[in-house]
Specification:
Elements lengths: L6 E2 L6 E5 L4 E4 L5 E3 L5 H13 L3 H14 L4 H11 L22 H10 L5 H45 L4 E2 L5 E2 L1 H26 L4 H84 L3
Antiparallel strand pairs: 1-2, 2-3, 3-4, 5-6
């Protein structure tokens, strides 16, 4: 018994094999047998459509491939196989957007098989099909890239928020509980330092030795203020400057991501327009071909 292709048993759903000697299909599970006539072309098409309607795409592919063994150019089987390649139940189900928000993918090997088997008169029809799949895959990839940028932007925004909170850890609190930016305190203390230094100088010049105590006092206060400013306040100013620099860089990165997302969105809009046009062409061709087949009694 040569196993040529797999099909589902109508009785139990098990796998069927072909017995070339007896010219029968045999079920590996329940032992049922079917002669070749059971799987005549009309019956096979009916089975293929049923599998498609149930989204049993692998089973549908098996049925259509069996039909194509008899007639490699059979349009309906090639059409069914092309639908299987994109996981579609019918041509009317194809839309410019991704199905149910799920990223689109297709089987390029099946598409190649269909194009290789298509007759010259049907080739344009299936080329349009391929273009739709190619554009839908490209659209899906661009949407995925745009979504990745959104996630990246969200992560950066969270980092900015954390850094923004971190900078307040370096603020200075006075005895009344009010917080002050280190840079403001730094500027204020330098102003106070300058005032005490100037007073020390003026007193020294004006009173000479008589004002030596006051001169030294103001000079010491100026030195203490300068020391506090350099040792305590200035490192905080530097920390906040570093944080602010990081935040500015992160905002610049967000702006860059937004520009990239706009580019992806523009590509998606163009691809959707192209896909709509191709779907319109496909449906128009499909109506004509199916109408001709119906007239021919197929």
């Amino acid at each position: 018994m040569d196993r040529i292709t797999k099909h589902q048993c109508p009785s139990c759903g098990g796998s069927l094999t072909i017995d070339n000697g007896k010219q029968m299909y045999c079920c590996l599970s329940c032992g049922s047998t079917y002669d070749y006539e059971y799987f005549r072309e009309e019956k096979l098409h009916e089975m293929g459509e049923k599998h498609l309607s149930r989204e049993e795409f692998m089973a549908a592919a098996d049925v259509y491939k069996l039909i194509l063994k008899k007639d490699p150019h059979e349009f309906l089987a090639l059409k069914g196989l092309m639908l299987v390649a994109g996981n579609f139940k019918s041509v009317k189900e194809i839309t410019p957007e991704d199905k149910d928000g799920v990223s689109f993918s297709y089987d390029p090997e099946l598409v190649r098989e269909v194009l290789d088997g298509a007759s010259e008169e049907d080739r344009e029809y299936f080329k349009t099909f391929k273009e739709i799949y190619t554009f839908k895959k490209e659209r899906s990839d661009n949407v995925s890239e745009a979504e990745a940028l959104i996630r990246q932007k969200r992560q950066i925004s969270e980092v900015i928020s954390r850094n923004d909170k971190l900078r307040y850890q370096y603020y200075m609190t006075d005895r009344y509980g009010a917080q002050h930016a280190p840079k403001t305190v730094f500027t204020f203390l330098w102003a106070m330092d300058a005032i005490h230094a100037i007073l020390a100088l003026l007193i020294g010049v004006a009173y000479g030795e008589e004002g030596i105590v006051a001169t030294i006092l103001f000079a010491v206060i100026a030195l203490v203020i300068a020391a506090i400013n350099l040792i305590v306040v200035f490192p905080r100013v530097n920390k906040i400057m570093d944080i602010d620099k990081t935040i500015r860089e992160l905002y610049a990165k967000i702006a860059e991501l937004e520009e990239q997302k706009k580019a992806f969105d523009h590509k998606v809009e163009k691809l959707e327009a192209d896909i709509r046009m191709l779907i319109y062409e496909l449906l128009k061709k499909d109506r004509v071909i199916m109408g001709d087949l119906k007239k021919a009694g197929k």
